[in-house]
């Protein structure tokens, strides 16, 4: 963590633990918040439900606790403070056995475990040099190993929704969700509800979007050429690159429109081990 | 009103007595040993006591966490995701092999090639090797400093009291003591070297200069409560050589100079640093550059070579990384000091972050804030290894020699050996690296030149 909390918070928390965690009698709605959200600095009587992440389409499920956040917690700029340090204030831990009551259909599957969310949030804040809870394209380009990746710019683009140039932690996790490994017990699940973000189909869709520059759900010859040019730099001539692109489209195209649609893309790659090649495993 | 008078004199008397006692203690226990280079061992006892307390504090926190059934936040230094160390060619071949049933190993573009770049890119977004070297290392156990605590909600009353006591000791007792010592050390250095500078050149001047330097640096070491363990002192740098070490903070200079007599290299600053630099120059020759001269690499190389070739001059102390790194890795050494052709004496410095993190994050803290943080930590504990001298072999060039020295230092200090430039802290990476990647990839599409004629 790059931002340890100030000394006063330690004393206030030890104070509440001394009191034995007495229940505070508060009323009012329980606002769902996610790590990285900004909440008003004042208002110690407001209650919040700090949420986790799930991979089933909608990205949050709610643990059963509704807790007030102490006033000194996470004070930041101006009149807002940021929800940080998820594990510090949940009074009941969320275990895998608990079934989320709503938003997340099907068996419980946390996108990442408690400690993994914390680690990724720590990473998010260390990349966020402007300290405003969002990442911009420059923040990503500051990673040297990403800057030397030939498709670095396309990957960075995948994080930013249409027309925006800031991404918050929720969006960050949403994109990273595509790379979660597919667990065995998920394969035999019920088919109701939206598909999880890390399904084989969604992983392929992520790769398809890297090729599809203008987002028209087709990879045209020009787009393929541009992406190829990014990958090979100056080492291959235009004609050779053109013939490679033509050959690829010819092999994949089935409906004769000289472009590759998503279904054709899936067909070409049906034998590739997508689950393994597009998954990132956590060490712990 | 009159009743206050006897109280006044009592308070004044008490103050006077305590100050005298303090200064006598200072003199006897700290300054006199520093002058003669001996040690009472007080600092080591202090360190052992602290370790016991930290262990107890960590156990306490772990017990508290188990009671509440919460997972503790434990930082992992070795990265959070599993990365496979396969090369670009191997990975892409593997992806193509699993996808197609055609004859293998003919270089051809496949749509699935993108998976490699995609996954590599996302892996570096989640966890990369370079950016985490520019911020302080995370500790696995708590050392009673609020600046390093991530699991504080498990603190019991006893721990809070202990922590409060720690704050009191560090800020009200140790800090004034250390500031007094630092002040003494620096003023003695300036005054001593100026006085020595007036002596005529000769054996006496050298002898006195060496001992004034050593004494003052030793006082500064005690001002930081630095507990240093030197290994392999027989390999200490000799005259006419260059001493290179990994760089974590400006304190590195004090640590090395309190055990050996070096000539410093650097840019002339203004203010207090400038005063020290000018004074020290009078006693023995150092190599100071004007700001404008620093950019001229030939001038720098020329002056360093001149200094090195004069065997009567002291070994130069250089930090080839050029910037402060957080002591978990060693980054690229700049080749300038390895082109000169002198014997290189590598030194590895490894700090133990448990007692106080010595890394200077210059984008976060200024010099004064940094020194204050240092002086309010428990102690600075480090190990220094003097490695055997190395010279450039005839078949290697300066860059290869630099890398060889860097690997030796990394291996000895238990640090990760990285090829990345420390300058990436502030600058963008050069485009040549991207072009290398592109070249590697294009080989997998069209093969080498010999293959092209076949297709």
TrEMBL record, chain A:
Q: Which domain of life is it from?
A: Eukaryota
The record's GO molecular-function terms, alphabetically, read:
calcium ion binding
Please give the Gene3D superfamilies that the UniProt record associates with this protein.
EF-hand (1.10.238.10)
Biological processes annotated in GO: protein transport
Which positions fall inside the EF-hand domain? 115-150, 199-234, 240-275
Q: Which GO terms describe its cellular component?
A: cytoplasm; nucleus; plasma membrane
Family from the record:
Belongs to the calcineurin regulatory subunit family. CHP subfamily.
> What protein am I looking at?
EF-hand domain-containing protein
Q: What is the lineage of its organism?
A: Eukaryota, Metazoa, Chordata, Craniata, Vertebrata
TrEMBL record, chain B:
Q: Name one GO molecular function term.
A: glycerol-3-phosphate O-acyltransferase activity
Q: What are the residue boundaries of the Phospholipid/glycerol acyltransferase domain, all occurrences included?
A: 241-352
Query: Which CDD domains is this protein grouped with?
Result: LPLAT_LPCAT1-like
Record's keyword terms, sorted = Acyltransferase, Lipid biosynthesis, Lipid metabolism, Membrane, Phospholipid biosynthesis, Phospholipid metabolism, Transferase, Transmembrane, Transmembrane helix
Where are the membrane-spanning stretches? 12-42, 155-173, 179-200
Q: Which pathway, metabolic or otherwise, does it act in? A: Lipid metabolism; Phospholipid metabolism
User: What Gene Ontology cellular component terms go with this record?
Assistant: endoplasmic reticulum; membrane
Q: Name one GO biological process term.
A: phospholipid biosynthetic process
Subcellular location per UniProt equals:
Membrane
Task: Please tell me whether the keyword Magnesium is annotated for this protein.
Answer: no
Q: What is its main location?
A: membrane
Q: Does the keyword Glycoprotein apply?
A: no
Q: Which family does it belong to?
A: Belongs to the 1-acyl-sn-glycerol-3-phosphate acyltransferase family.
Q: What is this protein called?
A: Phospholipid/glycerol acyltransferase domain-containing protein
Q: What is the lineage of its organism?
A: Eukaryota, Metazoa, Chordata, Craniata, Vertebrata
């Amino acid at each position: 963590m790059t931002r340890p909390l100030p000394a006063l918070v330690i004393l206030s928390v030890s104070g509440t633990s001394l009191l034995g965690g007495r229940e505070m009698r508060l009323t009012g709605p329980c606002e769902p918040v996610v790590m990285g959200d900004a909440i008003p600095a004042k208002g110690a009587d407001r209650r919040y439900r700090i949420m986790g992440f799930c991979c089933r389409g909608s990205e949050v499920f709610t643990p059963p606790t509704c807790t007030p956040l102490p006033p000194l917690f996470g004070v930041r700029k101006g009149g807002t403070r940021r929800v940080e340090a998820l594990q510090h204030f949940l009074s009941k831990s969320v275990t895998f056995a608990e079934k989320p009551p709503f938003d997340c259909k099907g068996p419980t599957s946390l996108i990442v475990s408690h400690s993994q969310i914390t680690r990724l949030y720590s990473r998010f804040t260390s990349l966020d040099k402007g300290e405003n809870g969002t990442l911009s394209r420059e923040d990503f380009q500051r990673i040297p190993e990403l800057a030397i990746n030939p498709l670095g710019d396309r990957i960075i683009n995948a994080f930013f929704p249409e027309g925006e140039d800031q991404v918050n932690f929720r969006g960050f996790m949403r994109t990273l969700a595509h790379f979660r490994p597919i667990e065995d017990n998920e394969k035999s699940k019920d088919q109701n509800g939206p598909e999880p973000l890390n399904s084989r189909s969604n992983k392929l869709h992520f790769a398809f979007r890297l090729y599809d520059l203008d987002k028209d759900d087709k990879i045209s010859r020009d787009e393929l050429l541009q992406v190829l040019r990014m990958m090979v730099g100056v080492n291959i001539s235009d004609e050779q690159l053109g013939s490679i692109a033509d050959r690829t489209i010819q092999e994949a195209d089935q409906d004769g429109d000289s472009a590759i649609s998503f279904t054709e893309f899936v067909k070409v790659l049906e034998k590739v081990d997508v689950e393994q090649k597009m998954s990132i495993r956590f060490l712990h | 009103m009159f009743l206050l008078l006897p109280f006044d004199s009592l308070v004044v008397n008490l103050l006077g007595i305590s100050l005298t006692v303090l200064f006598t203690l200072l003199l006897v226990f700290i300054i006199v040993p520093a002058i003669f280079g001996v040690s009472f061992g007080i600092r080591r006892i202090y360190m052992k006591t602290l370790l016991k307390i930290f262990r107890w504090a960590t156990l306490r926190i772990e017990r508290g966490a188990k009671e509440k059934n919460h997972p503790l936040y434990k930082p992992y230094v070795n990265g959070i995701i599993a990365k496979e160390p396969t090369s670009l060619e191997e990975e892409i071949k593997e992806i193509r092999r699993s996808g197609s049933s055609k004859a293998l190993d003919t270089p051809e573009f496949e749509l699935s090639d993108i998976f490699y770049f995609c996954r590599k890119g996302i892996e570096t977004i989640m966890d990369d090797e370079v950016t985490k070297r520019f911020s302080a290392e995370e500790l696995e156990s708590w050392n009673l400093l609020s600046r390093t605590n991530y699991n504080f909600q498990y603190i019991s009353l006893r721990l809070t009291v202990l922590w409060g006591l720690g704050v009191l000791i560090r800020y009200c007792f140790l800090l004034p003591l250390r500031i007094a010592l630092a002040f003494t050390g620096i003023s003695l250095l300036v005054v001593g070297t100026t006085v020595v500078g007036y002596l005529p050149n000769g054996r006496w001047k050298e002898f006195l200069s060496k001992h004034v330097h050593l004494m003052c640096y030793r006082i500064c070491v005690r001002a930081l409560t630095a507990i240093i363990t030197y290994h392999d002192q027989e390999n200490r740098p000799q005259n006419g050589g260059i001493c290179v070490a990994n760089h974590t903070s400006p304190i590195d200079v004090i640590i090395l100079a309190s055990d050996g007599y070096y000539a410093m290299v650097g840019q002339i600053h203004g203010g207090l640093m400038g005063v020290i630099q000018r004074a020290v120059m009078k006693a023995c020759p150092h190599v100071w550059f004007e700001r404008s001269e620093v950019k001229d690499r030939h001038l720098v190389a020329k002056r360093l070579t001149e200094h090195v070739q004069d065997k009567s001059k002291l070994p130069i102390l250089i930090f080839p990384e050029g910037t402060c790194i957080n002591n978990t890795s060693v980054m690229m050494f700049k080749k300038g000091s390895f082109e000169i052709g002198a014997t290189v004496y590598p030194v590895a410095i490894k700090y133990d972050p448990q007692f106080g993190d010595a890394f200077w994050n210059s984008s976060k803290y200024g010099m004064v804030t940094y020194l204050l943080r240092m002086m309010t930590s428990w102690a600075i504990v480090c190990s220094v290894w003097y490695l055997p001298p190395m010279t450039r072999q005839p078949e290697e060039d300066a860059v290869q020699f630099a890398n060889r020295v860097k690997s030796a230092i990394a291996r000895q200090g238990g640090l990760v050996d990285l090829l990345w430039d420390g300058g990436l802290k502030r600058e963008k990476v050069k485009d040549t690296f991207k072009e290398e990647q592109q070249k590697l990839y294009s080989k997998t599409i069209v093969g080498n030149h010999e293959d092209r004629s076949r297709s």
